[in-house]
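FAQ: What does the model actually see?

It sees only this:
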Amino acid sequence: MTPTGVGAAVPSRVRVRRGLSRPRGGSRKYDAAPRPFGGAGWHPWLYLAPALVILGGLLLYPIYQLGLISVFRYTQAQVSGGEPTAFVGVDNYADVFGDEQFWSVLLATVLFAAACVVSTLAVGCALAVLLTRVRALPRLVLMLAALGAWATPAVTGSTVWLFLFDPDFGPVNRVLGLGDHSWTYGRYSAFLLVLLEVVWCSFPFVMVTVYAGIRAVPSEVLEAAALDGASPWRVWRSVLAPMLRPVLTVVTIQSVIWDFKVFTQIYVMTGGGGIAGQNLVLNVYAYQQAFASSQYGLGAAIGVVTLLVLLAVTLVYLRLLRRQGEEL
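And it is asked to produce this:
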């Protein structure tokens, strides 16, 4: 007699194959041939290998050379071949940490970078929200103007800002009625002028990135917040900011890296660091030690310290986010 039920409709060959794929215990087991390179998990790395090799050559090798120079006495005499290079170990780092000017420059760099990051994020996020509330034509004009500022070379932008605030011919002093006031003479006014230029050329990245993140937020969420009577600030603080945290993490880390290693704006707008070095930041300070004083080993040591500070700040920020349960 032919068996009845569902099992009768399934051929024996299929039942055997199912039995092989689901052995006792409920776990799947396939008799497939061994995969090369340890399985499919290696396939993405094979595709990324050419890019990783190029990045390794462009990033890792210069960092290695920077660290190598920082432990040698390397001055103009060694460059010209007049004297052999001499291994000095951590003497260059001891000279850097023993210099009082280094600590004042480091403090000025941290404060200046923090002000630039906060200002850039505030302006970029505010304009990103504005882009979602204006019509197509104003949005297009604002986007083109912002991208134009972003695409402007740093030297060109710095020169234009110097002209705008020039004490003799600049239109800003005329509009504000400040006469021949020099913005680059005082320490804080010079830092403020550079900060404005840095924010002007940096906020488009934040604006475009955050705007794309806002567009990815479901419209139902924003509509529900509006129906509940939430103000625009409350919508941003309680709805958008938590949902955009991964995006904000990226733009914050990028801004910290860019603003901490500002060089061109300070060098051009303050004439190489301001009067008596009052507007020095770490990158300009390292440049002066390496090329103006021909102490290349000392300048390399400052560069290594700058790199380590940036890595420490980034890792601390990521660790704080992970403690808050954020997926990165």
